[in-house]
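Batch manifest, entry 17 of 40.
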Amino acid sequence: MYLALTLIIVLGAMVIQTSIFPLVFLTIKPDLLLVIVVYLGLRKGPEIGCLSGFAFGLMQDASSEIAFGANAFAKTILGFLSGVAGKQLYTQSVITHMLCVGFSTVAGELILLGLQGFQSDWQRLLLYETCYNMLCCPFIVGIFRGGEKRLGI
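Output type: structure tokens
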């Protein structure tokens, strides 16, 4: 049942990220799939973080214009690192999740920028996307926790 819950949340996030966010945000958009990968890594460990990072990164690669596999590569690394960090951190706190999402956003963007070349305004991109992801984090965590509570997990 947890897999079904995760897939529903991911598909919803993908729809929002690809159809609604482009209408609301002009150039810089939150990366909801990264927030989900970090959550799963922190809560379920490095294996699930790594697997979800790869799968969700490939989904994101299919709908983006950057090199195929770049998002999968970055999210796989970030999912694994989140899982390793989750063993050392208190993961019940939303603040912990927000800080990990912030660090993961910076690291992920630096990986992607390193793969495709730095743009002229990469600092602005990094700052705004980090803020957007950290602001979206409590909502994603709340949705997951509500689903986990409903499932009795």
